[in-house]
Amino acid sequence: MSTPSADAASALATGPDHGRPVVPSTGVLRPLGLDEVRITGGFWGRFQELNATTIIDHAERWMERVGWIGNFDAAVEGRLPVDRHGREFSDSDVYKLMEAMAWEIGRTGNTTLEARLVALVDRIAPVQEADGYLNTMFGRPGQQPRYSDLEWGHELYCYGHLFQAAVARGRTHGRDTLVEIAVRAADHVCETFGPDGLDAVCGHPEVEVALVELGRYTGDRRYLEQARLFVERRGRGTLAQIEFGQQYFQDDVPVRDAEVLRGHAVRALYLASGAADVAVETADAELLGAVDRQLATTLARRTYITGGMGAHHEGESFGDDYELPPDRSYSETCAGVAAVMTGQRMLLATGQARHADLVERALYNVVATSPAEDGKAFFYTNTLHQRTPGTVAASDAVSPRAAASLRAPWFAVSCCPTNVARTLASLGAYVATADDDGVQLHQYAPADIRTTLPDGEVVELRVLTEYPADGHIRVEVLRGAARPWTLSLRVPAWAEGASVTAAGSSEPVTAGYARVTRAFAAGEVVQLELPVHARWSWADPRVDAARGQVAVERGPVVMCLESVDLGADVATARVRTDEPPLERDGAVLVPVVTAELDDAAWPYRHGAPNPPASESRLVPLTPYHRWANRGPSTMRVWMPVV
Amino acid sequence: MSTPSADAASALATGPDHGRPVVPSTGVLRPLGLDEVRITGGFWGRFQELNATTIIDHAERWMERVGWIGNFDAAVEGRLPVDRHGREFSDSDVYKLMEAMAWEIGRTGNTTLEARLVALVDRIAPVQEADGYLNTMFGRPGQQPRYSDLEWGHELYCYGHLFQAAVARGRTHGRDTLVEIAVRAADHVCETFGPDGLDAVCGHPEVEVALVELGRYTGDRRYLEQARLFVERRGRGTLAQIEFGQQYFQDDVPVRDAEVLRGHAVRALYLASGAADVAVETADAELLGAVDRQLATTLARRTYITGGMGAHHEGESFGDDYELPPDRSYSETCAGVAAVMTGQRMLLATGQARHADLVERALYNVVATSPAEDGKAFFYTNTLHQRTPGTVAASDAVSPRAAASLRAPWFAVSCCPTNVARTLASLGAYVATADDDGVQLHQYAPADIRTTLPDGEVVELRVLTEYPADGHIRVEVLRGAARPWTLSLRVPAWAEGASVTAAGSSEPVTAGYARVTRAFAAGEVVQLELPVHARWSWADPRVDAARGQVAVERGPVVMCLESVDLGADVATARVRTDEPPLERDGAVLVPVVTAELDDAAWPYRHGAPNPPASESRLVPLTPYHRWANRGPSTMRVWMPVV
């Protein structure tokens, strides 16, 4: 990993809010910022390194190549709409790239990246119109008028990503041109869509969560009020009827009345994040309770074992309760990112470990699944069952967004790569929080943590772990405090049999937080032991598509069976579950039988199928997030049981 | 049922080809026409009656109301494109209605319907341009130019339905204005897309099958040659790349090279029908073999137990092999109609009973499922598992084509109701065929059959049956022949234990055709006994979505469990399969248990699910084709096994 320069570190330390993506003015937990937590290696350190060396560059290069960045130049040079490239929301991907760059600069002080970000800002700035409007798709002669297609135009959605980029920049660098652009655009949004303005919402939620954060950053409560208005307006049918139905963009039921997330999954989760933020800032317990209820029901009935959300390709949407087909799981990478956003906000608001559990599940099994090992190709959708090997996308071709389940270098709709990039760059912010009593660790990674308790005492911790390869989490106190404070360590819900050791005594701990309260002295160690071993996991019987099948999880990591390990298509593979999965030399192995089946006959018969099984043999499983890194394969997370 | 007037009957009898929808110039079997076979009651007689009294009227009324017929008036009056209503292919539904009317007039001689059809023709005729072009969507000032959007424009598709309407008219009435319109349009198509014309195909196959039949009817081999050209051109990438991929419109692989049906199901099946017709007319055994192979593989791996085809809502398309989710079965009604078309063509070409089996399965479980009992609402998609009761579509509202799984009166894309109407009106043509040796019965319905054997001898048969309520099929010879000939009776593949009785002796018969060869005298009876009783049916283990579940079939009819019979949501219902399903007083009953399950918890657990089962109780099943006729319900064809 790159090392931050002294200058950059100092810039970050003096930036407002210390590099925190989310800074609620109230809530149970206080987030720590990128200057307070540094991931120093391990699983996520490697992903951050991949992001730093490859993913951000890859995204920038592709957006230059396909002309999405060039759209801004074309606007300045009066070449629009003729020379416009990409879909109506392509501006937003440039902003997401800029957000990723800003967090990454904050994290590492990379000066080359700093220059590239500044250059991008310089190309975008002149496109902003005098009244603050900024979009390359609308409003010019030959283009549709501004805000004439709120259902599909994505103008406010694009602002949302602009605002988030500006917040990232402001909180890692301070107010600069990017922040000023965002402020002018936000003022324009408030004037246009305020209480006396257009009674309308955007077809794609996103501006809500971004307006709240821009308001938190700038201190301008108008932005919060505008976010509140957008949240309250939604669900009242101001958007036109479309074939997918108004639930597609959550305009079917008011946010505070809804029982479950529904419609387009990314839209639903961005909205939930924004609604949670609005609820926190306005002390609206009813609204926060609505988001909590919707999220809980969604997790109970509409979420894949990976934490993936979205069961329909059509409409990229949630399905009905328990409708979770592995072979048609949409589980868009962006929905994984959005679930992390929602989970983190609910964690900060409530302090409940179940929200950090969701963040962990989605990070390890959706966000980490998207990028290829080389960082140059991505999953847009994340299927749990690949029936055909498919073909590898050409490295120089744009792929349809969901045509293949093999990673592709870039997509016609390419929201996911930049979403992964901004998440990885800001990942340190998900590791730990503080409250009046002490420090909480939520996500386990080798990390250095340095924060100040409310009474002004500075504490420093070092986390050492190979998690999730194993479950040993060692927390060394580098700098203690004179008074007792509480170190809380999250115990995931799957971790039956966990224990914590502190001051020489060991205790079993259960799901939630293991709390150790002491006047920690420098050199003290707290050790959490999580039972990271492979286990069979079964689905509720109402998840019909997983009936008679079993999955394997190892710690937070979902495993899968890949044809490259089986030496055959996974279509007829079944596993024996008499014994737990075997762990040997770092590999997880399960006993698999295969069968020779007729594939030319009518497939419905009088007798129950009882295909002759081969001798079982031990076959290694692959972490789901690493599948399809060894060429085309077939794969399944849910394995039929003999 | 209406009785044909003497005039109409005589018009039909003297019409060319005697009311046959498909008249191959060669093939193993010769189709009988509507003047040779009359369905006289029973299951399909009731559907024909519903069609005659309600469905055709309903479709005409709706198309007047939504302006799709009015588009032709608007064209004449110069009000296009401003006053155009409906999607780009709405002309085709007017033509399908006209085809249904033509067959219905041929069947019953209904003089009111005759006047309505003539009136429709009079409104369409003046829209045809001097060179034969006819379409309300393209070519006028303010509209896109002709043939500028072959991917989505559906111009040739619309001609296809025009040609099929004209063939129906010609073969039940003789050449009239409708036929002349079609001939001018077909000439225009040949000039525009012939060997020296545009090297292109239509994004939606249909014109191929229609051109062959128009060629058979008129004797003009140019139409056949044009169909052959369209079939050979497809699969060579002349259509533009789209997000669904070129397999969506079968432009990915040449027809004779493909291994399985793929992409949009209706497109694939219309193309297969056309390719089969071209193969037969050009004695192209390779092409016929290709269709046979693709259809066989599709039946083995990509077809629902209902005969339904199309596993994806997105793209209305086939899925991968064995990807057949009951809860997302698209199984479009039109794909059922198209499967019937393809199956019937392959039956005529090969004489193999398996093709008639497909026709039967799709008729009883897809085509018959679409219309509501009152004939005023239709399924567009045919799900095999309804998870939410949904809401009944308003009787005066147009529904999105696939938004709900409850029948709706009309759709924004409303291809299905008219497709059902034309199929029901011409259903007599599927009942029986003849060859040099005698007569074959393929579909069982009470019917009167009168045909002439090649040596000029007239034979008359009367079929008496309550099939599929029971399996007794009695064939009375009303008029025999001096020389021996063969009566062949199809024995469906499911009918294990069937027997045939003739001349006092009874014999077991197996799947295929039971053949009785005699110099049948008037008054002789042949009795076929099919074992119509309820049976458990299991899916191949690779149909993952049906794993651990069982269906019930009774004769050709797939059954289902509906919440209105269970008295509860079907979500937790499981059945015991120790004994065969019970049949009592005409009902099929199965032992069902239900369970109380937590629906607020994370649904993936360590232990195998073993929900406590209630006492089992006998619950009646409903024929799948009759489900959702008693208000909103949840339903499943595949029932989990205890």
Automatic annotation (TrEMBL), chains A, B:
- UniProt-recorded Gene Ontology molecular function terms: hydrolase activity
Non-reducing end beta-L-arabinofuranosidase-like GH127 middle domain segment(s): 439-531
Residue ranges constituting the Non-reducing end beta-L-arabinofuranosidase-like GH127 C-terminal domain according to the UniProt record: 537-640
BP GO terms, sorted: carbohydrate metabolic process
Domain of life according to the entry: Bacteria
- Tell me which UniProt keywords the record has, alphabetically: Hydrolase
Question: Residues in domain Non-reducing end beta-L-arabinofuranosidase-like GH127 catalytic?
Answer: 36-428
Does the keyword section mention Hydrolase?
yes
Keyword Hydrolase assigned to the entry: answer is: yes
Q: Which Pfam families match?
A: Beta-AFase-like_GH127_cat, Glyco_hydro127C, Glyco_hydro127M
Where do the record's region annotations for Disordered lie? 1-24
Q: What name does the UniProt record give this protein?
A: Glycoside hydrolase family 127 protein
Record the organism: Georgenia yuyongxinii
